[in-house]
């Protein structure tokens, strides 16, 4: 007989906490809540109450549970949670979620497009996709995701849960989790988020004596005072305030007739006698004795498999035919011991995890070991290949049977398969289980696999420490070849983590092991890693090594061909990608040929990530050559279809920079707003830095120094000063911004800084000004001749659309200086066509060459100055607009006054009588410039600046210049 309470007793405070959290979520204030307590303490009852209340509020509810079988199943509770919502509701159709379907297909395979290749998404990509899904589901009424038994979950799930917690503050999401206070990743996470106040943690203690009596009364449908005192005392002592144990013990009393209902109420019979179970194990042993022998055997076999078990596996272990098997299962369900698992039709689960433990504990140790040994043998010899779950189950059974070495082999193989599938965290867990169990002859191989799993899972320090502790192996042996590959893989992980010193040490270790003549495949992999290492700033190699581009290219080309011949398509793709970078010095046609080969290999061998990498790089090259982003947009669509969120962010950075160079400010800002924060959340430092630099460059190209400085400060904090983006920061951003402030001296200094950096570091970014803007400024200053200009034109960088426009201007200036007005005009005509996509650069170029054209008597400098003045005045870049007006006056041309501009002045200043001219001075004051600096930037006299300053002090009522500058900073007024 079952004795279950229809109500929750003694948890009023916790129910109030859940209610408050649901209310907050409805106000779009996300909440994370964890219920912590021992098995049977009532966590699941509270989760059920939360689900009931959420449904009543119209909230979508997603509910999942970690497996308690001891198996490591990546994302199990998350997959079950999504299945609980979408098995009946179907695939969500909100267009905002379309880019995330491929990543979410890891949890719901039905969402993957037919025929589309699998993508090994990272944990952070999947976490971001889940966060977007939950926010969309909760858009109207809020959303609740309920995850139970997290103490049994995999490390990938823990990482996803942490990501969601850290990013749900302003989203309509409630995350409720339950776990036991057992050491592990889940408990570490809960304590961490509790310390930083990111989640509320409620520890459930045992019920007080009065609540034990109330719960007993609820189970028996009686008033608490009707419970016999002897029954209450025994239940209070034995159950120790644990609701589940109380219900089981109470059911045993009812089943054995030692508690029965009479006309006068409930009566205890023979209560003090020794036949009363002393603990939960004896209680379940008695219940087993009352079942038919086949049902009892089935339950013991089931408990051996864990608290959740597969019917198929159970049939293999027991040997029952279908009819007998399901008859016995039905009897066990009717007895209240097990129940069908709603998440999987082929699985059953014990009604409580303690039940399986109690059943197994009722057996003698030798009987338990024998049962586990027979079960492991039956599964291994069933004639069916074992998947990862099967290997873990066999390993657990072997361990229970005392076969440590056999368990280690199964755990290790399951871990290696997890590693190959991209489940790095779960691979680490399984390999760490295998390592101490392994026989001495197998332990080094397990440690090698564990080192790679740790490195690929992000724990590079742990991986390197483990590699350092590996026992030595004879050089140039089979073991050395295997160990050398491990060091190569660790070196690649170090390169990807931008840790050149560690990468160099791993490369050297591999070379020592493999000797001077390593196997061809290993040699190719070494060359590729070494090539990428050479591109990192400060790659940590001792002594000066002169660059040998031709030699490097030849070695990488041979590595690519070797990798193809040896059947190593990933190494081949790595090599062709590296070769594309190296070949940029020859020209973009050669680079594109390498990328096309990479695209062909990745397509042929179904390597979707590398295929999209090739498409992205081909698109980037096309954008730089022509200024057209069409192919880059196609690459982004391919990355989105694949669900490659990190690659999508990379493309977004390139598209944002393209929009900046083409002066499509709203488009650039939309991309940066969409992707900069997301790339930071997922830890994609490279894309995040590029997006921050795009934001700084946009501010520079709009003449907004304060915004540029703020964005560059964020760029520095993100590690930008230690990245390969330094030349772009100096040239494309700061130097260009200085020119919009009419500060050519500072622009030249920034360009020289970029050039000096590139002289000390390999660089394949060609937009730093070295091949376009710098030659133009040097020609204008009289520091460069035609030979220097032609050298720049002959480089691959000189062929890029952005650079070519400046080189055409420089050539026109030289031709005009030489008296060839017709030649200069042809160059200006070419400039007109090349500069069309880049309006800011186009008009800045006209401003820069107009003085030279007027001095040397060629071209149409007055028309150019008028065009530039009108453009920059409309763009709010007053220094250039003022300089153009001054140059027009010097040329004797009439200068029309802009009597408009009042609309740019904020209402409080306009009502105080501030004029457009005074406002031009006012917007510069947050930088606290001197009068001479203001005069230079606005091309007016210092005396005029003094007059405007005096007028501004009077009109704004500020006491002195410092107060006026402070007021300007507080206004934070930006030019339109």
Task: Explain briefly what this protein structure is.
By secondary structure, this protein is mainly alpha-helical.
Q: Considering DSSP H and I runs of 4 or more, what fraction of the residues is helical? A: 55-70%
Strand content: under 5%
**Radius of gyration (Å):** 36 Å
Report the biggest beta sheet as strand number plus sense, adding barrel if it closes: 5 strands, parallel
Total strand segments: 10
Number of helices: 47
Question: How would you state the average pLDDT, rounded?
Answer: 87
Shape: elongated
Provide the low-confidence segments as ranges: 271-278, 540-546
End-to-end CA span: 78 Å
Derived from helix and strand composition plus strand pairing, the structural class reads: mainly alpha
Strand order of the largest sheet: 2-3-4-1-5
Keywords, separated by commas or semicolons:
976 residues; mainly alpha; five-stranded parallel β-sheet; 47 helices; 64% helix; elongated
What is this structure's SSE topology?
Elements: H1 12-26, E1 31-36, H2 43-56, E2 61-65, H3 76-89, H4 101-104, H5 123-137, E3 143-148, H6 155-167, E4 173-179, H7 185-195, E5 200-203, H8 209-220, H9 229-239, H10 243-255, E6 259-262, E7 265-268, H11 280-289, H12 293-305, E8 308-310, H13 311-318, H14 322-334, E9 338-340, E10 347-350, H15 353-361, H16 365-380, H17 388-400, H18 404-421, H19 424-437, H20 440-456, H21 460-468, H22 478-496, H23 500-514, H24 520-535, H25 549-565, H26 569-582, H27 588-604, H28 608-626, H29 630-642, H30 645-661, H31 665-681, H32 685-701, H33 705-717, H34 726-739, H35 744-760, H36 773-780, H37 786-793, H38 801-817, H39 821-834, H40 839-856, H41 861-875, H42 878-890, H43 907-911, H44 916-922, H45 931-938, H46 942-956, H47 961-971
Parallel strand pairs: 1-4, 1-5, 2-3, 3-4
Antiparallel strand pairs: 6-7, 8-10, 9-10
């Amino acid at each position: 007989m079952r004795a279950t309470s229809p109500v929750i007793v003694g948890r009023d405070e916790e129910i109030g906490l859940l209610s408050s959290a649901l209310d907050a979520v409805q106000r779009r204030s996300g909440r994370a809540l964890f219920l912590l307590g021992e098995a049977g303490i009532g966590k699941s009852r509270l989760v059920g109450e939360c689900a009931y209340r959420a449904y009543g509020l119209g909230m979508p509810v997603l509910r999942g549970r970690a497996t308690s079988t001891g198996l490591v199943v990546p994302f199990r509770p998350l997959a079950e949670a999504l299945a609980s919502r979408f098995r009946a509701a179907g695939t969500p159709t909100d267009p905002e979620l379309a880019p995330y379907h491929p990543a979410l297909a890891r949890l719901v395979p039905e969402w993957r497009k037919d025929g589309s290749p699998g993508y090994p998404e990272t944990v952070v990509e999947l976490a971001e996709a889940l966060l977007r899904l939950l926010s969309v589901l909760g858009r109207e009424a809020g959303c609740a995701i309920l995850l139970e038994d997290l103490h049994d979950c995999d490390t990938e799930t823990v990482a996803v849960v942490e990501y969601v917690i850290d990013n749900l503050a302003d989203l309509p999401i409630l995350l409720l989790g339950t776990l036991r206070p057992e050491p592990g990743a889940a408990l570490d996470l809960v304590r961490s988020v509790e310390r930083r106040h990111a989640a509320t943690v409620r520890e459930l203690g045992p019920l007080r004596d009065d609540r034990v009596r109330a719960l007993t009364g609820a189970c028996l449908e009686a008033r608490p005072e009707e419970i016999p005192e002897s029954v209450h005392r025994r239940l209070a002592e034995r159950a120790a305030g644990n609701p589940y144990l109380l219900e089981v013990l109470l059911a045993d009393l009812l089943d054995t007739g030692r508690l029965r209902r009479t006309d006068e109420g409930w009566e205890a019979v023979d209560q003090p006698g020794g036949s009363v179970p002393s603990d939960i194990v004896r209680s379940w042993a008695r219940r087993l004795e009352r079942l038919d022998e086949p049902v009892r055997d089935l339950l013991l076999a089931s408990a051996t498999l864990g608290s959740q078990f597969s019917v198929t596996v159970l049939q293999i272990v027991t040997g029952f035919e279908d009819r007998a098997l399901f008859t016995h299962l039905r009897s066990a369900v009717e007895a209240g011991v097990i129940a069908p698992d709603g998440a999987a039709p082929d699985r059953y689960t014990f009604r409580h995890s303690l039940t399986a433990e109690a059943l197994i504990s009722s057996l003698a140790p030798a009987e338990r070991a024998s049962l586990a040994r027979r079960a492991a043998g039956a599964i291994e010899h069933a004639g069916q290949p074992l998947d990862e779950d099967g290997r873990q189950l066999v390993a657990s059974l072997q361990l229970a049977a005392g076969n440590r070495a056999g368990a280690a082999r199964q755990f290790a193989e399951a871990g290696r398969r997890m590693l190959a599938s991209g489940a790095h965290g779960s691979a680490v867990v399984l390999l760490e289980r295998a390592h101490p169990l392994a026989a001495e002859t197998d332990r080094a191989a397990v440690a090698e696999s564990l080192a790679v799993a740790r490195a690929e899972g992000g724990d590079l320090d742990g991986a390197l420490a483990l590699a350092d502790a590996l026992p030595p192996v004879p050089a140039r042996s089979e073991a050395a070849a295997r160990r050398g590959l491990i060091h190569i893989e660790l070196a690649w992980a170090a390169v990807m983590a931008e840790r050149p010193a560690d990468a160099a040490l791993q490369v050297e270790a591999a070379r020592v092991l493999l000797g001077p003549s390593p196997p061809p495949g290993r040699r190719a992999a070494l060359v590729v890693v070494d090539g990428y290492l050479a591109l990192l700033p400060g790659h940590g190699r001792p002594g000066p090594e002169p660059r040998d581009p031709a030699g490097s290219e030849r070695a990488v080309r041979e590595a690519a061909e070797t990798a193809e011949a040896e059947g190593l398509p990933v190494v081949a793709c790595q090599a062709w990608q590296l070769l594309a970078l190296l070949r940029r010095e020859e020209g973009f046609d050669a680079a594109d040929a390498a990328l096309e080969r990479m695209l062909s290999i990745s397509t042929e061998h179904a390597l979707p990530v590398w295929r999209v990498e090739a498409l992205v790089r081909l698109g980037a090259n096309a954008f730089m050559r022509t200024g057209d982003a069409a192919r880059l947009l196609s690459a982004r669509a391919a990355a989105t279809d694949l669900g490659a969120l990190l690659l999508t962010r990379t493309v977004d950075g390139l598209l944002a920079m393209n929009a900046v160079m083409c002066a499509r400010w709203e488009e650039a800002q939309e991309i940066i707003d969409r992707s900069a924060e997301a790339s930071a959340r997922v830890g994609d430092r490279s894309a995040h830095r590029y997006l921050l630099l795009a934001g700084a460059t946009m501010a520079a190209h709009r003449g907004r120094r304060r915004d540029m400085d703020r964005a560059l400060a964020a760029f520095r904090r993100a590690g930008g000063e230690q990245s390969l983006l330094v030349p772009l920061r100096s040239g494309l951003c700061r130097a260009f911004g200085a020119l919009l402030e009419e500060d050519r001296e500072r622009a030249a200094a920034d360009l020289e800084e970029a050039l000096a950096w590139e002289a000390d570091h390999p660089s394949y970014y060609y937009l730093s000004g070295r091949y376009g803007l710098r030659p133009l400024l040097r020609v204008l200053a009289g520091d460069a001749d035609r030979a220097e200009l032609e050298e720049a034109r002959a480089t691959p960088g000189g062929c890029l659309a952005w650079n070519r426009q400046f080189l055409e201007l420089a050539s026109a200036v030289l031709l005009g200086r030489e008296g060839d007005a017709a030649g200069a005009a042809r160059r200006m005509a070419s400039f007109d066509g090349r500069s069309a996509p880049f309006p800011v650069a186009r008009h800045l170029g006209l401003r820069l060459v107009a003085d030279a054209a007027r001095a040397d008597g060629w071209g149409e400098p007055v028309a150019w100055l008028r065009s530039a003045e009108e453009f920059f005045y409309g763009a709010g870049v007053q220094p250039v607009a003022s300089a153009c007006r001054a140059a027009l006056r010097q040329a004797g041309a009439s200068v029309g006054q802009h009597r408009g501009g009042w609309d740019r002045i904020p209402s409080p200043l306009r009502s105080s009588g501030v004029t457009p001219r005074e406002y031009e001075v006012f917007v510069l004051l947050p930088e606290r410039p001197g009068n001479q600096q203001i005069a230079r930037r606005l091309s007016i006299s210092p005396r005029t600046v003094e007059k405007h300053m005096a007028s501004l002090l009077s009109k704004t009522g500020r006491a002195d210049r410092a107060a006026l500058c402070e007021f300007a900073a507080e206004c934070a007024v930006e030019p339109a």
